[in-house]
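Standup notes
- DV: blocked on the single-chain target, sequence here:
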Amino acid sequence: MKNLSVYLCGFMGCGKSHIGRMLANNMGKQLVDLDKYIVTHEKMSIPEIFERFGEPHFRALEAKYIKELSDGFVVATGGGALLNDDTAKFARESGMSVYINTDFDICYSRIKGDTNRPLVMKNTEGQLLALYNSRDPVYKKNSTFTVNGNTRDTLICTEIIKLAKVFRDEHPEYL
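- DV (later): unblocked, structure below
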């Protein structure tokens, strides 16, 4: 038997960390915020990693570290982590991945001016909208489930818990 890990994905500001905290609490699991995990292990901020090594290196770190989080965690991934098909495949094979599909306007209101987000700082609102639109089909393709992120956090959390039960029923190898 394997402990079910739940990987939350979606655009920056969709609510992965907030929903992740609620979900971990409700499911009796530990939340791991992948961005914070990377910062801790690399001993550098995300902007420093982007500046020194570039975005491809950061994406490689996401792929590397997500593989350490496959034993019963709730993982709030970074906005780009499950865009990598291999990383997304790993997440699907070691648990379930959930796309929190939140409207761009909501995401943007939460992230605008956030200096800890290199992509926000170097792109205009229009460029971020284009990025959002390009990522949406990839999130959908690479996720086990999609939930509506435009509703109350308690409803989103309840929906993911229901999906986890369905997933476990279909995959009895998970606790």
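- Follow-up: The chain has one domain: 5-169.
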